[in-house]
Design a protein that fits this description.
The structure is a single chain. The protein is built from 13 helices and 17 strands. By secondary structure, the protein is of the alpha/beta class. The chain folds into 2 domains: 193 residues, Vaccinia Virus protein VP39 (Rossmann fold, 3-Layer(aba) Sandwich); 120 residues, Rossmann fold (3-Layer(aba) Sandwich), CATH 3.40.50.720. The chain has a 7-stranded mixed β-sheet, sandwiched between helices. A 6-stranded mixed β-sheet has the order 14-13-12-15-16-17. α5 runs parallel beside α6. The termini are far apart. The relative contact order is 0.12.
Length: 411
């Protein structure tokens, strides 16, 4: 492979943030008939750019091979995420004064989980998503959706057909973009002169604070903070005018931006910049020491699973999420330690987790098998999952999360 260079500023990459070893794509779920077939592994090695401080993993696989019709992520399977999305829609409609004459465009609109709330309010929408299967689910909800990757070319075509967008949204997709500049240029072209754009993404500051290493995987090319995002936006005539700190995904930012000078810049922007500086994210030393904390989390998890096996306890897991796959493969956990992973997503049921080859089953299996422990892999929705599975208490079952630290409850 040729020299690795930063996708934001093209500087050579040489400083390691964390090396999680060789891993399969986190969403490359395995069909049972291929249980004993080899799977492609890639280096899951995150670097921090010495020049612009963008944390990133190299792209070893084309985006078309990852985000296609087989991509099995459906946002609507999380009740808490739907509630979060509805609150966003209601607040944004009021904040921006959107109505039936407006146009709302969401990039990576998935199964219509968010745009459905704008449709219900009579506001014209367009979803853009590269996966035909999830796009069809959105269309069935009444959400107009185009199957395409987003960038400058797609933006130009949509602008010619539909006109400029008053609101453009990209929730938890910026990290999935291998060509940041083409993606951001698309927003610059399609966004109306006085329009507003919003990006939501896990905040690198919170990832480092909590040692949330399982949010690192091949489909996440970049790990973002304002310090690394603002220069990319400025390169395309855009500027950040407001920032909201959110609890989602262990701590996220909702960054509001627009064409330079189109909106008054709020105090919240400088407040987040200040927090990042205080945490040391404005200089290379602030990114050190992460790998040691990852090892400590994995060691604690392996000890727990070993002790459970020694004591004759049974362990299952819930949530066949990408973060769970990164955790399992980094810690070296296999199906001899966790019997199965339950998940509501029917597109994943009957398949195997990549790497670990743990079978994915319907949630009802938990109540059939009555395991002693249920590990909640998507720890960011642990309260939602624990409420759904509260019935395990009837046989003395307990919940476990490993990230950001080992937790077992009820006591």
């Amino acid at each position: 492979m040729s020299e690795l260079v930063c996708r934001a500023c093209a500087a050579p990459l040489g400083t390691t943030f964390v090396d999680l070893g060789m891993q399969p794509l986190s969403n490359a779920y395995v069909e049972p008939a291929r249980t004993f077939e080899p799977q492609t592994y890639y280096p899951l090695h995150a670097f921090v750019c010495d020049r612009c401080l963008l944390v990133q993993v190299p792209a070893f696989e084309r985006r078309e091979e990852i985000f296609n019709d087989a991509y099995a992520y459906y946002s609507s399977y999380s009740d808490s995420w739907l509630a979060h999305s509805e609150r966003y829609a209601d607040a944004t409609i009021a904040r921006l004064g959107l109505d039936g004459r407006s146009l709302v465009v969401e990039v990576a609109s998935n199964d219509g989980y968010l745009l459905q709330y704008f449709v219900r309010r009579g506001i014209p929408v367009l979803g853009i998503d590269p996966s035909g299967d999830v796009a069809q689910a959105a269309i069935a909800r009444g959400v107009r959706t185009e199957v395409a990757f987003f960038g400058a070319e797609t933006a130009t075509a949509v602008l010619a057909r539909d006109g400029a967008a008053d609101l453009m949204i990209a929730n938890n997709v910026l990290a999935h973009v291998p060509d940041l500049h083409d993606f951001v240029e698309g927003f610059a072209r399609l966004l109306a002169a006085g329009g507003a754009g919003s990006f939501e993404f896990p905040h690198l500051l919170r990832l480092i604070d909590g040692a949330l290493f399982d949010t690192i995987y091949q489909e996440h090319y970049s790990y973002l903070a304002l310090v690394s995002l603002e220069p990319v936006l400025r390169a395309h005539g855009l500027e950040v005018w407001s920032v909201e700190e959110l609890p989602t995904h262990g701590g996220s930012l909702r960054v509001w931006f627009g064409h330079r000078g189109a909106h008054p810049v709020e105090a919240s922007v400088e407040a987040v910049r200040h927090a990042e500086r205080d945490a040391g994210l404005d200089a290379l030393p602030g990114y050190g020491g992460f790998a040691e904390r990852v090892r400590a989390i994995c060691d604690a998890a392996v000890r727990f699973l070993s002790d459970a096996a020694r004591d004759g306890k049974t362990v299952a897991a819930y949530g066949a999420a990408a973060k769970g796959n990164t955790f399992l493969n980094t810690a070296g956990v296999r199906r001899d330690a966790i019997a199965f992973v339950a998940d509501r997503n029917t597109a994943k049921q009957g398949r195997l987790m990549p790497g670990s080859r743990i079978p994915i089953v319907a949630p009802e299996r938990i109540f059939d098998e009555r395991p002693d422990y249920v590990v909640i892999l998507p720890w960011n929705i642990r309260d939602e999952v624990a409420a759904q599975l509260d019935g395990i208490r009837a046989w003395g079952g307990r919940f476990v999360t490993f990230v950001p630290e080992l937790a077992i409850w009820p006591d």
